[in-house]
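Ops channel
N.P.: pipeline sanity check, posting one input/output pair.
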Protein backbone atom coordinates (compact mmCIF):
# COMPACT_ATOMS: atom_id res chain seq x y z
CA UNK A 1 0.00 0.00 0.00
CA UNK A 2 1.18 3.52 -0.83
CA UNK A 3 0.32 6.66 1.12
CA UNK A 4 -1.01 9.29 -1.27
CA UNK A 5 -1.23 13.08 -0.95
CA UNK A 6 -5.00 12.82 -0.44
CA UNK A 7 -6.58 13.11 3.01
CA UNK A 8 -9.77 11.10 3.42
CA UNK A 9 -12.59 12.27 5.67
CA UNK A 10 -14.82 9.96 7.70
CA UNK A 11 -17.78 10.66 9.97
CA UNK A 12 -17.55 10.01 13.69
CA UNK A 13 -19.90 10.84 16.59
CA UNK A 14 -18.63 13.71 18.74
CA UNK A 15 -19.67 15.70 21.77
CA UNK A 16 -21.58 18.71 20.39
CA UNK A 17 -19.56 21.23 22.41
CA UNK A 18 -16.36 20.03 20.72
CA UNK A 19 -17.89 20.98 17.35
CA UNK A 20 -18.33 24.65 18.30
CA UNK A 21 -16.27 27.36 16.65
CA UNK A 22 -13.54 27.64 19.32
CA UNK A 23 -12.30 24.08 18.69
CA UNK A 24 -11.77 24.51 14.93
CA UNK A 25 -13.03 21.14 13.73
CA UNK A 26 -14.54 19.91 10.48
CA UNK A 27 -18.10 18.67 10.75
CA UNK A 28 -21.33 17.71 9.01
CA UNK A 29 -24.78 18.87 10.05
CA UNK A 30 -26.19 20.89 12.90
CA UNK A 31 -25.73 24.66 12.67
CA UNK A 32 -22.66 26.34 11.20
CA UNK A 33 -19.82 27.00 13.63
CA UNK A 34 -18.97 30.44 12.24
CA UNK A 35 -15.30 31.44 12.24
CA UNK A 36 -15.33 35.21 11.67
CA UNK A 37 -18.15 36.53 13.85
CA UNK A 38 -18.76 40.16 12.86
CA UNK A 39 -19.23 39.96 9.09
CA UNK A 40 -21.51 36.97 8.72
CA UNK A 41 -23.10 36.23 5.33
CA UNK A 42 -26.33 38.08 4.71
CA UNK A 43 -29.49 35.97 4.30
CA UNK A 44 -29.64 36.87 0.59
CA UNK A 45 -26.13 35.42 0.18
CA UNK A 46 -27.41 32.00 1.24
CA UNK A 47 -30.54 31.79 -0.91
CA UNK A 48 -30.80 29.04 -3.50
CA UNK A 49 -30.10 30.57 -6.91
CA UNK A 50 -32.96 28.60 -8.42
CA UNK A 51 -35.92 28.64 -5.99
CA UNK A 52 -34.81 31.62 -3.84
CA UNK A 53 -35.41 29.72 -0.59
CA UNK A 54 -32.83 29.62 2.27
CA UNK A 55 -30.13 27.01 1.73
CA UNK A 56 -29.38 24.44 4.42
CA UNK A 57 -25.99 24.05 6.07
CA UNK A 58 -24.37 20.81 4.92
CA UNK A 59 -20.82 20.78 6.28
CA UNK A 60 -17.69 22.76 7.03
CA UNK A 61 -14.05 21.89 6.42
CA UNK A 62 -11.35 23.42 8.62
CA UNK A 63 -8.41 23.89 6.27
CA UNK A 64 -5.61 26.30 7.32
CA UNK A 65 -3.02 27.16 4.66
CA UNK A 66 0.53 26.62 5.88
CA UNK A 67 2.84 29.56 5.32
CA UNK A 68 -0.03 32.03 4.95
CA UNK A 69 -0.24 34.09 8.15
CA UNK A 70 -3.70 35.40 7.29
CA UNK A 71 -5.02 31.85 6.90
CA UNK A 72 -3.84 30.43 10.23
CA UNK A 73 -7.54 29.68 10.86
CA UNK A 74 -9.49 28.95 7.69
CA UNK A 75 -12.86 27.25 7.19
CA UNK A 76 -14.92 26.42 4.11
CA UNK A 77 -18.71 26.19 4.49
CA UNK A 78 -20.99 24.27 2.17
CA UNK A 79 -24.73 25.02 1.80
CA UNK A 80 -27.26 23.09 -0.30
CA UNK A 81 -30.84 23.73 -1.32
CA UNK A 82 -33.32 21.59 0.62
CA UNK A 83 -36.01 21.67 -2.08
CA UNK A 84 -36.49 18.32 -3.82
CA UNK A 85 -37.09 19.83 -7.26
CA UNK A 86 -33.84 21.83 -7.09
CA UNK A 87 -31.90 18.68 -6.27
CA UNK A 88 -33.23 17.06 -9.42
CA UNK A 89 -31.62 19.86 -11.42
CA UNK A 90 -27.92 19.93 -12.36
CA UNK A 91 -27.92 23.71 -11.86
CA UNK A 92 -24.90 24.55 -9.70
CA UNK A 93 -26.69 27.63 -8.31
CA UNK A 94 -28.41 25.31 -5.83
CA UNK A 95 -25.09 24.81 -3.98
CA UNK A 96 -22.83 27.41 -2.37
CA UNK A 97 -19.40 27.27 -0.75
CA UNK A 98 -18.03 30.12 1.38
CA UNK A 99 -14.50 30.77 2.63
CA UNK A 100 -13.55 32.52 5.88
CA UNK A 101 -10.09 32.97 7.40
CA UNK A 102 -8.27 34.70 10.24
CA UNK A 103 -4.70 35.23 11.43
CA UNK A 104 -3.62 33.50 14.62
CA UNK A 105 -3.92 36.76 16.55
CA UNK A 106 -7.47 37.96 15.99
CA UNK A 107 -10.45 39.56 17.72
CA UNK A 108 -12.33 36.35 18.49
CA UNK A 109 -10.15 33.46 19.65
CA UNK A 110 -7.25 32.93 22.04
CA UNK A 111 -3.75 32.79 20.60
CA UNK A 112 -3.18 29.30 22.03
CA UNK A 113 -5.39 26.23 21.41
CA UNK A 114 -8.25 25.67 23.89
CA UNK A 115 -8.24 22.95 26.53
CA UNK A 116 -10.28 20.08 25.07
CA UNK A 117 -10.46 18.11 28.33
CA UNK A 118 -13.11 20.41 29.84
CA UNK A 119 -16.34 21.56 28.25
CA UNK A 120 -16.58 25.27 27.59
CA UNK A 121 -19.07 27.35 25.57
CA UNK A 122 -18.67 28.52 22.01
CA UNK A 123 -17.49 32.02 21.22
CA UNK A 124 -20.69 33.97 20.63
CA UNK A 125 -21.29 36.21 17.67
CA UNK A 126 -22.33 39.82 18.34
CA UNK A 127 -24.64 39.39 15.34
CA UNK A 128 -28.09 37.88 16.13
CA UNK A 129 -28.53 34.41 14.66
CA UNK A 130 -31.59 32.66 13.27
CA UNK A 131 -32.94 30.36 15.96
CA UNK A 132 -33.84 27.79 13.31
CA UNK A 133 -30.70 27.48 11.15
CA UNK A 134 -27.96 29.39 12.97
CA UNK A 135 -27.30 31.87 10.14
CA UNK A 136 -27.51 35.66 10.38
CA UNK A 137 -30.97 36.55 11.73
CA UNK A 138 -31.94 40.19 11.10
CA UNK A 139 -35.70 39.57 11.47
CA UNK A 140 -37.41 39.67 14.89
CA UNK A 141 -40.64 38.06 15.91
CA UNK A 142 -43.01 41.04 15.66
CA UNK A 143 -44.93 39.97 18.74
CA UNK A 144 -42.40 39.04 21.44
CA UNK A 145 -39.38 40.71 19.81
CA UNK A 146 -37.01 38.24 21.44
CA UNK A 147 -36.40 35.60 18.74
CA UNK A 148 -34.44 36.19 15.55
CA UNK A 149 -34.89 34.64 12.12
CA UNK A 150 -33.06 34.75 8.79
CA UNK A 151 -36.24 34.72 6.73
CA UNK A 152 -40.02 34.65 6.79
CA UNK A 153 -39.99 30.98 5.81
CA UNK A 154 -37.93 30.00 8.88
CA UNK A 155 -40.13 32.17 11.07
CA UNK A 156 -43.20 30.31 9.81
CA UNK A 157 -41.47 26.98 10.39
CA UNK A 158 -40.60 27.86 13.98
CA UNK A 159 -44.06 29.30 14.64
CA UNK A 160 -45.72 26.03 13.68
CA UNK A 161 -43.14 23.89 15.47
CA UNK A 162 -43.02 25.57 18.88
CA UNK A 163 -42.92 29.33 19.02
CA UNK A 164 -46.67 29.80 18.75
CA UNK A 165 -47.12 28.01 22.09
CA UNK A 166 -44.72 30.24 24.02
CA UNK A 167 -44.88 33.61 22.23
CA UNK A 168 -46.47 36.55 24.01
CA UNK A 169 -46.17 40.31 24.03
CA UNK A 170 -44.35 39.99 27.38
CA UNK A 171 -41.69 37.77 25.80
CA UNK A 172 -41.32 34.03 25.35
CA UNK A 173 -41.34 31.70 28.34
CA UNK A 174 -38.17 29.93 27.24
CA UNK A 175 -36.14 32.10 24.86
CA UNK A 176 -34.28 30.22 22.18
CA UNK A 177 -36.20 26.97 22.57
CA UNK A 178 -36.95 25.40 19.22
CA UNK A 179 -38.47 22.00 18.54
CA UNK A 180 -39.64 20.26 15.42
CA UNK A 181 -37.11 21.91 13.06
CA UNK A 182 -35.02 18.81 12.39
CA UNK A 183 -36.32 18.82 8.81
CA UNK A 184 -33.76 21.51 7.93
CA UNK A 185 -30.89 20.44 10.22
CA UNK A 186 -28.83 17.41 9.28
CA UNK A 187 -27.52 14.97 11.91
CA UNK A 188 -24.26 16.28 13.35
CA UNK A 189 -20.95 14.40 13.07
CA UNK A 190 -17.29 15.29 13.20
CA UNK A 191 -15.24 14.78 10.02
CA UNK A 192 -11.94 13.15 10.97
CA UNK A 193 -9.22 12.78 8.36
CA UNK A 194 -6.42 10.35 7.65
CA UNK A 195 -3.99 9.92 4.79
CA UNK A 196 -5.22 7.74 1.96
CA UNK A 197 -3.46 4.43 1.44
CA UNK A 198 -3.93 3.04 -2.01
CA UNK A 199 -2.50 0.14 -3.97
CA UNK A 200 -2.86 0.90 -7.67
CA UNK A 201 -3.58 -2.03 -9.92
CA UNK A 202 -0.66 -3.13 -12.03
CA UNK A 203 -0.98 -1.92 -15.61
CA UNK A 204 -1.22 -4.57 -18.29
CA UNK A 205 1.72 -4.94 -20.60
CA UNK A 206 1.15 -4.31 -24.30
CA UNK A 207 1.18 -8.06 -24.89
CA UNK A 208 -1.34 -8.73 -22.09
CA UNK A 209 -3.58 -5.93 -23.34
CA UNK A 210 -3.52 -7.36 -26.87
CA UNK A 211 -4.43 -10.81 -25.55
CA UNK A 212 -7.36 -9.34 -23.60
CA UNK A 213 -8.62 -7.49 -26.68
CA UNK A 214 -8.34 -10.63 -28.81
CA UNK A 215 -10.26 -12.63 -26.21
CA UNK A 216 -13.02 -9.99 -26.16
CA UNK A 217 -13.19 -10.03 -29.97
CA UNK A 218 -13.45 -13.83 -29.96
CA UNK A 219 -16.30 -13.65 -27.45
CA UNK A 220 -18.17 -11.16 -29.64
CA UNK A 221 -17.66 -13.40 -32.68
CA UNK A 222 -19.14 -16.37 -30.86
CA UNK A 223 -22.15 -14.25 -29.90
CA UNK A 224 -22.54 -13.00 -33.47
CA UNK A 225 -21.83 -9.39 -32.49
CA UNK A 226 -18.33 -8.88 -33.89
CA UNK A 227 -19.50 -7.02 -36.97
CA UNK A 228 -22.25 -5.05 -35.28
CA UNK A 229 -20.19 -1.90 -34.74
CA UNK A 230 -19.21 -1.72 -38.43
CA UNK A 231 -22.89 -1.31 -39.32
CA UNK A 232 -23.54 1.62 -36.97
CA UNK A 233 -23.78 5.20 -38.28
CA UNK A 234 -21.11 7.65 -37.11
CA UNK A 235 -23.41 9.33 -34.57
CA UNK A 236 -24.12 5.98 -32.91
CA UNK A 237 -20.40 5.12 -32.91
CA UNK A 238 -19.67 8.42 -31.15
CA UNK A 239 -22.30 7.62 -28.53
CA UNK A 240 -20.89 4.13 -28.07
CA UNK A 241 -17.39 5.58 -27.64
CA UNK A 242 -18.67 8.14 -25.11
CA UNK A 243 -20.45 5.41 -23.17
CA UNK A 244 -17.21 3.42 -23.04
CA UNK A 245 -15.33 6.42 -21.64
CA UNK A 246 -18.13 7.03 -19.13
CA UNK A 247 -17.96 3.43 -17.95
CA UNK A 248 -14.17 3.50 -17.62
CA UNK A 249 -14.25 6.74 -15.61
CA UNK A 250 -16.89 5.35 -13.27
CA UNK A 251 -15.02 2.06 -12.91
CA UNK A 252 -11.88 3.98 -11.96
CA UNK A 253 -13.88 5.95 -9.38
CA UNK A 254 -15.28 2.76 -7.83
CA UNK A 255 -11.93 1.01 -7.83
CA UNK A 256 -10.18 3.94 -6.13
CA UNK A 257 -12.65 4.22 -3.27
CA UNK A 258 -13.14 0.46 -2.78
CA UNK A 259 -10.48 0.28 -0.05
CA UNK A 260 -12.23 3.04 1.97
CA UNK A 261 -15.92 2.86 1.01
CA UNK A 262 -17.05 5.03 3.96
CA UNK A 263 -15.10 8.13 2.90
CA UNK A 264 -17.23 11.28 2.72
CA UNK A 265 -14.46 13.73 1.86
CA UNK A 266 -11.35 13.77 -0.31
CA UNK A 267 -9.00 16.68 0.43
CA UNK A 268 -5.98 17.60 -1.69
CA UNK A 269 -5.44 21.32 -2.09
CA UNK A 270 -3.84 21.87 -5.48
CA UNK A 271 -4.43 18.25 -6.49
CA UNK A 272 -6.96 16.62 -8.79
CA UNK A 273 -10.54 15.47 -8.16
CA UNK A 274 -11.64 11.87 -8.51
CA UNK A 275 -14.28 12.14 -11.23
CA UNK A 276 -17.40 10.03 -11.63
CA UNK A 277 -17.85 10.81 -15.30
CA UNK A 278 -15.89 12.51 -18.10
CA UNK A 279 -18.20 15.53 -18.02
CA UNK A 280 -16.05 18.02 -16.11
CA UNK A 281 -16.03 21.84 -15.89
CA UNK A 282 -14.43 23.35 -18.98
CA UNK A 283 -13.34 26.51 -17.19
CA UNK A 284 -12.74 27.19 -13.50
CA UNK A 285 -13.54 30.88 -12.90
CA UNK A 286 -10.84 33.05 -11.38
CA UNK A 287 -11.22 34.45 -7.88
CA UNK A 288 -13.61 37.41 -8.05
CA UNK A 289 -11.65 39.29 -5.37
CA UNK A 290 -8.02 39.05 -6.51
CA UNK A 291 -8.49 37.77 -10.11
CA UNK A 292 -6.05 34.95 -9.35
CA UNK A 293 -6.60 31.30 -10.36
CA UNK A 294 -8.58 28.82 -8.34
CA UNK A 295 -7.33 25.32 -7.54
CA UNK A 296 -9.06 22.12 -6.51
CA UNK A 297 -9.31 21.80 -2.73
CA UNK A 298 -11.77 19.08 -1.77
CA UNK A 299 -14.73 17.05 -2.90
CA UNK A 300 -17.76 15.71 -1.04
CA UNK A 301 -18.42 12.06 -1.81
CA UNK A 302 -21.83 10.43 -2.39
CA UNK A 303 -21.36 8.35 0.78
CA UNK A 304 -22.21 11.44 2.84
CA UNK A 305 -25.81 11.14 1.68
CA UNK A 306 -26.16 7.95 3.74
CA UNK A 307 -25.79 9.89 7.00
CA UNK A 308 -28.13 12.79 6.26
CA UNK A 309 -31.52 11.06 6.50
CA UNK A 310 -32.87 13.27 3.75
CA UNK A 311 -34.18 11.72 0.54
CA UNK A 312 -34.56 15.14 -1.12
CA UNK A 313 -30.80 15.42 -1.62
CA UNK A 314 -28.83 13.81 -4.40
CA UNK A 315 -25.42 14.24 -6.01
CA UNK A 316 -22.59 12.20 -7.47
CA UNK A 317 -19.77 14.32 -6.08
CA UNK A 318 -19.44 18.01 -5.12
CA UNK A 319 -16.08 19.41 -6.20
CA UNK A 320 -14.79 22.62 -4.59
CA UNK A 321 -12.22 25.02 -6.09
CA UNK A 322 -10.78 27.89 -4.04
CA UNK A 323 -8.53 30.89 -4.56
CA UNK A 324 -4.97 29.58 -4.97
CA UNK A 325 -3.59 32.48 -2.94
CA UNK A 326 -6.38 32.29 -0.35
CA UNK A 327 -6.49 36.06 -0.70
CA UNK A 328 -7.32 38.33 2.23
CA UNK A 329 -11.01 38.84 2.97
CA UNK A 330 -13.24 40.48 5.54
CA UNK A 331 -15.81 37.97 6.69
CA UNK A 332 -16.84 35.50 3.98
CA UNK A 333 -16.44 35.14 0.25
CA UNK A 334 -17.99 32.69 -2.20
CA UNK A 335 -15.81 30.14 -3.97
CA UNK A 336 -16.59 27.82 -6.90
CA UNK A 337 -18.28 24.44 -6.63
CA UNK A 338 -19.17 21.95 -9.35
CA UNK A 339 -21.81 19.27 -8.95
CA UNK A 340 -21.14 16.12 -10.94
CA UNK A 341 -23.86 13.51 -11.15
CA UNK A 342 -23.36 9.89 -12.08
CA UNK A 343 -24.97 10.55 -15.45
CA UNK A 344 -24.15 14.16 -16.29
CA UNK A 345 -25.47 15.94 -19.39
CA UNK A 346 -24.02 19.24 -20.60
CA UNK A 347 -23.62 20.76 -17.12
CA UNK A 348 -19.96 21.66 -17.23
CA UNK A 349 -20.39 25.41 -17.50
CA UNK A 350 -23.59 25.92 -15.56
Amino acid sequence: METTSVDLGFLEPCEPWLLSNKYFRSKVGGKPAWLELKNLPKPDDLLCGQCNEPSGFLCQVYAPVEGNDNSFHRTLYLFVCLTATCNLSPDARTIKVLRSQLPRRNDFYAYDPPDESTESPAVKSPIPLCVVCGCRGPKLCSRCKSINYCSASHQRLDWKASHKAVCSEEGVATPGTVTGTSSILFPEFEIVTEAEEYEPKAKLSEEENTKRQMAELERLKQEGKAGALDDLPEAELDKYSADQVEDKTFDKFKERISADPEQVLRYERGGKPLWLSPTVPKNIPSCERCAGPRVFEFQIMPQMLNSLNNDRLDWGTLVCYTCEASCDIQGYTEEFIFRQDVLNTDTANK
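N.P.: looks fine end to end. Helices lie at 84-87, 152-166, 206-222, 234-257.
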